[in-house]
Structures are given as C-alpha cells and as structure tokens.
Amino acid sequence: MEVDQHMTRRVVLRLAGAGVAVAAIALSPVVMASAHAVLNAGKYHVAIGWQFEPSSGTVTYVDQPNAVQVFIDIPTASNPVATPVGDLNADCTKPDFQVTATFGTATSSPLCPQPAFDADTGSGRMDEYDVVLTPTRVGDYTFRIFGNIHGTAIDQKVTSGPTTFDSVGDQNSTEFPTPVPALSDLSTKLDQISARAADAKTAATNATTAASNAHNSASGASTLAVVALIVAVLLSIASLVLTLRRQRT
Fold first, then answer.
1. Is residue 55, in this structure, part of any structural domain at all?
2. Residues near 49 by beta carbon (within 8 Å), at least 6 away in sequence
3. Could you tell me the CA-to-CA distances from 202 to 92, 193, 216 in Å, in that order?
4. What is the chain written as a DSSP string?
5. Given the DSSP bridges, would you call strands 83-84 and 67-74 parallel, antiparallel or unpaired?
6. For the packed helices 2-27 and 183-248, what is the interaxial angle rounded to 10 degrees?
7. Torsion of the alpha carbons at 160, 165, 168 and 172, rounded to the nearest 10
8. Which of 163, 177, 165, 123 has the alpha carbon at shortest distance from 141?
9. Cα angle value 59/62/65 (rounded, 5°)
10. Residue 177 — φ and ψ, nearest 5°?
11. Whole-number Å distance between alpha carbons of 164 and 145
C-alpha cells in the first residue's frame, strides 16, 4: 500500500510538471532544441525538430509537453542563418505553411506554427515558429512541412533519427529508485482493467441467468412431481373404492 501511495504521488507530480512545461513553451520561445533536420526550399534554409530535448542523448521523452519547432532563414556562404524570415503565419486562418506529425499509421491534422518573436518585448528569435505538440507514444515520428515561403513552395517529410531530430523514448532510465509508468502506459493498463471488469460483469450476469433458469427448471420439476403424486394417490383411492364395491356385490 505504501508503494502504491508513493507511485500515485509521483504520477500527480508528473502531471503538475507537465503543466509547468506547457507554461515553459509559452514563456520561453528562445530555447532551441539540440537536434533539427535541415531542409532547403529554394533560397531558404529550413530547420525542423522538437523544441524541447534532453541536454544530452538522442531521445525526447514521451508524455512531456513539447512543440514542433521550425526555423526559416536565408543563408549565405558563411552563415546558414544570415537573414531570418519572421513574417510568415501571421494569420493561422490563412497559413503560409503548416506541419503534420505522423506516428505509425496516425497523422495529426495540419498544425500552424506561429512566430516566436515578440516585437513588443524583443524576446524570441525572428526566424522561429512553434506549435505545441505532446508525443504520447515511444518511437519514431515523421514531420511534414508544406505550403510556401514567400512564393517558394515547400512540401517535404523528415523522420526522426540520429541525423535529423530526436525519436521519442520513455524516461525510466532517468528515474530512481522506482520508475514511474508513462501516462500512456497507465491509460493502456486502465483500458485493460476496464475490459477485464466488463468481461467479469458479463460472466457474472450469465451465471446469474443460468442459476435462475436452473432454479425455475427445478421448481417446475418439483411441481410436476407433486401433481404426479396427487394423481397417483387419487388413482389408488379410486381403485380401492372400485374393489370394495365389487366385494359388496
């Protein structure tokens, strides 16, 4: 019981930490992830990846609020980010470019990365665009970026890996002494428990119905036995009466 209480408390803390991470996405747009895939569209240099990644390693953690991060620049021979492009997706009802995320056979709806630069405060990078996305499964993800950059069409896909951006993994290796199950794992286990409970309920209902039917059958058999006994008694009496009459005559 004590272990269960500790486990529950740590899951709650993880959920609270997730809320903090969401706030971090909104308040700290200047953070750049360590690994991005680099694409080229005409004269434009485009980098895409997760916004938040561990400071070391090549794995982004599952169930941690994150964002798809895009950088767009016009490079020079000596500087790949020489001229930032920061005037795209000002209106996400009419986006210049969008991204989708694919995991296995599931693909997100088109997402609109918005400019991270705040002209009023001067915070953020002028070439950065972010859209919040929380990875909920461990494995490889594919980002597709499509649309146009000032009239230059772009439609490219890139999959996570050692030379692009981080794949998603669990963080059990960073937890001690007892790893906390990922939220997706907890959800799966709850679904399994719910399914087993439903099966048990169905089995109990079927057993109750069978018992009721057996009881009804037994009651019917008892009734027939009583009727048969009464008929037998009546026939015996009738036979005795007939015998006595014959003797008298």
1. yes
2. 33, 35, 36, 37, 68, 69, 143, 164, 165, 166
3. 49, 14, 21
4. -HHHHHHHHHHHHHHHHHHHHHHHHHH-TT---S--EEEEETTEEEEEEES---SSSSEEETTS--EEEEEEEE--SS-TTSEE---S-S-TTS-SEEEEEEETTEEPPPB--EE--BTTTTBS-TTEEEEE----SSB--EEEEEEEETTEEEEEEEE-STTSS-EEE--GGG--SSPPPPHHHHHHHHHHHHHHHHHHHHHHHHHHHHHHHHHHHHHHHHHHHHHHHHHHHHHHHHHHHHHHHHHH-
5. antiparallel
6. 130
7. 140
8. 165
9. 110
10. -90, -20
11. 14
Q: Domain count for the chain, please give it.
A: 1
Asked if 145 and 46 count as a contact pair (C-beta separation under 8 A), the reply is yes
Q: Is the pLDDT of residue 18 over 90?
A: no
Domain coverage including residue 70? 2-181
Of 245 and 124, the structure prediction assigns the larger pLDDT to 124
User: Residue 229 domain-assigned?
Assistant: no
Q: pTM of this prediction?
A: 0.61
Q: Do 14 and 20 contact (CB within 8 A), yes or no?
A: no
Q: What backbone phi and psi angles, to 5 degrees, belong to 112?
A: -110, 100
> Tell me: the pLDDT tens digits for 53-112?
876 666 788 888 999 999 999 999 999 899 999 999 999 999 999 999 999 999 999 999
Domain-located, residue 120: yes
Residue at 197 is within a domain: no
Residues 6+ apart with CB under 8 A from 2: none
Locate 171 and state its tokens. 């963080």
Task: At 110, list the tokens.
Answer: 């088109």
